[in-house]
Amino acid sequence: xxxxxxxxxxxxFAVCTSIEYDLRNFIxxxxxxxxxxxxxxxxxxxxxxxxxxxxxxxxxEYEILIELDLGDLVSFIIGNHSSFRVNLxxxxxxxxxxDKIIPIRNRVMHSRxxxxxxxxxxxxxxxxxxxxxxxxxxxxxxxxxKLILENPQQLLMEVKPTVKDDxxxxxxxxxxxxxxxTGFVGRKKEISDLKGLILxxxxxxxxxxxxxxxxxxxxxxxxxYDIVDDPEHQDRFDAIVWVSLKTxxxxxxxxxxxxxxxxxxxxMYKSLQKSTVEDSDSPVDDILSFMQNFNTLLVIDxxxxxxxxxxxxxxxxxxxxxxxxxxxxxxxxxxETRFRLSEMSxxxxxxxxxxxxxYYGLELYKRDKDSLRQLLTEDLYSSPLSIKWFVTSIYFKxxxxxxxxxxxxxxHFSMSNIIDKLNSSQKEILHLFLLEGKxxxxxxxxxxxxxxxxELAEDINVLQSTSMxxxxxxxxxxxxxxxxxxxxxxxxxxxxxxxxxxxRSELSRILQNIQLEKEASPFFxxxxxxxxxxxxxxxxxxxxxxxxxxxxxxxxxxxxxxxxRAREVAPDYFEVYKIKAYINAENMNLYEAIESYRTAVENAxxxxxKATVLYxxxxxxxxxxxxxxxxxxxxxxxxxxxxxxxxxxx
Length: 650
Hints:
By secondary structure, this protein is an alpha/beta fold. The chain has helices spanning 8-30, 38-47, 61-67, 70-79, 88-109, 118-132, 139-150, 152-158, 188-199, 216-229, 265-275, 283-293, 312-316, 346-359, 369-379, 384-395, 400-405, 408-419, 424-436, 442-448, 453-465, 480-489, 494-520, 535-552, 556-569, 574-586, 590-603, 608-625, 628-649, and strands spanning 171-172, 205-209, 239-244, 248-251, 254-257, 296-301, 323-328, 337-340, 440-441, 469-472, 475-478. The protein contains 29 helices and eleven strands. Strand 10 and strand 11 form a beta hairpin. Helix 9 (188-199) packs across helix 10.
């Protein structure tokens, strides 16, 4: 049969209720001698005393059966299989089928997040259940199966689900999951890590940070429903209160404004007050009072749509017994524990893409491996929203090539709220990445930017917290979607381009001079070695050359500042300490010079580099301190290092 489409959950609801209907009839029609157990009767009474007339002294078994769920019905039949004339083979088949179906039924009926395989598992059961278990009359199941095949629209009109959540002690107003089309796909480690943060007693303010459409809301809902349904964590929270500040949604491949969306902090407080207790004219006081009296997890979704600074005082006032979980494209500062959500892995992206295509009856996933990787990782940024935007747009008859050539709306939706809140220095850092077109180390960024090292570190921290920059192995790289957004909506100015070009030329000239000096005078005190090994050392050597120029003019303070900047860029670079020693010696700071030479020796590589530093250390003892004995010892050590180096290379 063709795959489910339209509204997945409603169709799955119809299948589950059909199976339950036929099982109730099977139990009722066969009327086993033993009757229903007392615990089933009590469960039925508890769930709905009005509909179980047995609570009034009568014993209508079918009314009790109506209040029992699929797990109850199956366990009753299996537990009394001989009374129902179900043999051991049929009992085994029944258990095997319903062990898979019952968890799915519970997720469907209680509005829990669906798993990615739920639809296909239930669809398979719908196809085989009457053949595998022919003793049961599957009349309603067959009718539902026929309607799904021939007229699913009618079935959707007839299904009127009633959701009852009697599975948890935790009060909550969590929204229905928005990933019913595929179920929740992948991110197993992220789910485990995030649940750990939510459940611990340490992290009071947690912010899930990531690009728009990366799946922050989805993973939050998935984790929270897992917690709500886990018996081990029923006592962790008394309440989970959700408020969404989302203002736009993806519908039929287009981004549209949400009617009635909350656009202000005041609106957020009023919405939260309605979900807690309205005791006063002050929403904030009522919310905090509720959180004081009940262990509460307050969830604020899409915080970036308002100014985060407006709620800082509120967050600082959260009672110690309660917590706050935030989803946002940018953080709220020092208060939070940040949980950064990155792009989906290639494996998860491929699985999500395939399931989504199958849901819409498309075969877009049937392409060669390289083409699929290019589409998902480069064109669609491994982002769930981007992938869904692409598939739904194709479904609604948009040409694929045209779609990928015009991603403006997608990129703007995903990035605009972040870029707009950055200051000019932070935007210039991103512009630098656009111009350089490659990952950059901190030293390179520091070289081109006109701000202190401390300010630069703060700006980079902000860019990382908003997922604009990714860091790996001491390098930074601009997020691919951020790069595309800036190229479209916020390009570098001509003045900035010229400034970067001028500094790049200046750096190139200095490095060439350093190389010439090294070849001409390798043992000269001002000669700099190893400067081309890494980008950080290149930048550090630039500042060291600057420091030497200042020291020649006896501008000792400026020289010291340049050396310090070189150290910040490359703290393990031995030349930093060698040049620092030389400048201190020239300024007759003898103790500082000795300490710096010793540090240079420790950091220099064995052989030629270490021998050079020891030689200069010897010159220092002789010329600046008249300490010939120490000078002799250092030159002997230098000779040993150099001799060993020569033996090693031959």
